[in-house]
Amino acid sequence: MWQSSPKDEDSDDTWVAYSVSNDDGNTWSQPQPLALPTKDFYCTSGGWLVRGDTLTAFIDTWEKGLEPRGGKTNYITSIDGQTWSRMRPVRMADDENVMEGVLEQDPYTLPDGRLVGASHFMPGLHICPVYTDDPRGISGWQKGLFEAVDCGKSSREIEPSQYIQPDGTIVMLFRDQTSSFLKLASVSTDRGETWTKPVLTNLPDGRTKQCAGNLPNTTAFMVSCPANGKRRWPLVLQLSYDGRAFDRAILLRSGSADDLPPRRYEGRYKTLGYSYPKATVWHDKLYISYSTNKEDVECTIVPLTLLVKPSFKNLMRETSPEYFLSDEARHVGDQILLYQRVTGGWPKNIDMSKPLSDKERALVLADKQKRDDSTTDNGATTSQMIFLARLYQQTKDERYRDGFRQGVEYLLNGQYENGGWPQFWPEMRDYQIHITYNDDAMVNTMTLLRDIAEQKEPYQGDLTDEAFRHRMQAAFDKGIECILATQIVTDGELTVWCQQHDRETLKPAKARAYELPSYCSQESAAITLLLMQLPHPDERVKRAVDAAMRWFDKHKITGYKVVRIGTRGSSDYDTRLEKDPDAQPIWARFYDLENCEPFVCDRDGIPRRHLSEIGSERRNGYGWYNSRPAMLFPIYEKWCVTLRSRNILTLGLKSVGNEL
Question: Which of 11, 14, 453, 555 is the most exposed place for a label (fewest CB within 10 A)?
Fold first, then answer.
């Protein structure tokens, strides 16, 4: 689908066309009209949505002569791609008001079915993320909480698209209308309801529309013209396995003389190069369509086999039902069962998808009796359980259900009477016995048990029984009690948590030489978010959350940013903290318990104030600063309004924080 006009872009005679392929994109039909202009408005394309047998086309209609120009979103539907319904308006959540803004990309479907996108709202073109739980995408749209920069007739942020990071965070990318020639980005951790203030990324852009999304294995992709100037070539497909670093790129169109033809026609906004890319996965290929010189529509087809080289960690994040029907998924599932210990848990840091020789298989079988390496550290056990649950739902192979249930028993049996979980169980040594929040081990365990107890996808059906789920809910509730009991109290005031707490005294405890008893911001942010997810928090939970948020606000660091220079693994690679008055707030990983001052630490166990004071190995090999608490502020504001109809604390990311 695309918009077309005889000469000028966005002229009053602009209409929407579409074409059909019956041979996997090798040949396409002649353009057919999808929406035609009337005496009152002209039409542009807004994207597709497929639900079951129904294909929905979103059509943007623009009132002729309106200043500043703006439009509304409408839709038509078809079950055969040939006969279409009459055009109707897309409606907002009150079901009375139409969407007085234009969608320009396909709505993104979250794993739970919610649709997320963004619309340019009138007057003018001012962007705001939107979401709906209507799977048809035709009603129930709500605006997300979002702070855009007003540039007069439009916002600074325009022409968005989005993808999901492995932890469920939604990332929305924007073209920067102020010609920085870098992409802007905003993130949401609550399914599109609240968004961070957009910031400039280091992703170069040609001030042109881009498209982003996820491949079936969750790898994030982005198609754009990373020219870092006002030029619409080359056209590049970029990939990111973690949704943060786009470190793989495939050249689609170079823009060279033998690749980019000369322009044939003149017209308003006519531009040499590749514009308006859109991409979708169909079967085993990624189809990327785009305009060449704003005169022709072309399509580049990329086999997924060229793009998908998943690590074991990425395989554990796979969610596609089709994948779990594959032979590869069964192979991985069988090897996960092979690595499962007699305890019901799994060891960490092992690629369980790697093919094994007979000798290697024999060694793995011999290790099944181990009782000292089962852990929830680094995502072990919980990630294998999630994979087995998804595999069972698609195959109904009881071996996978049995392995999953043994994993649940491991988690339930490893819980202390006080509600906490150690890092390893049942045989532990040194700091492994402590109640462990480090790297979100306990939060991951509790989140999994809660989701199973509530039979969230993929834990529905006969994966567990009611008695089993009651035990999991009871374990989750005990975990909440432990969290409340371990919150550090200083001078009679609740604060936050340490990475680990003594299982007897519940006091902050030491782990590795450089992980000292301290206030720990990163893990405390995850704990606070878990508490805010409780459907009916009591007064103790409310006090705990209020106190943690007060602490985060008081101890944020402003005016600095973390900078990494050189190439990772090389001698010139280094991590530094540099002054930047425009930097977003950050937090130190650790704050000392005596003065609540940030510190870093080397393997000698001596706390120091500055990164430059510790050796290269620890300076570059550990996360000493983070921005995770920042995501909590908009969530907390909404949480307060929901529970109390007002925000009782005056908090803000914009206020001046601490200096180093």
Answer: 11
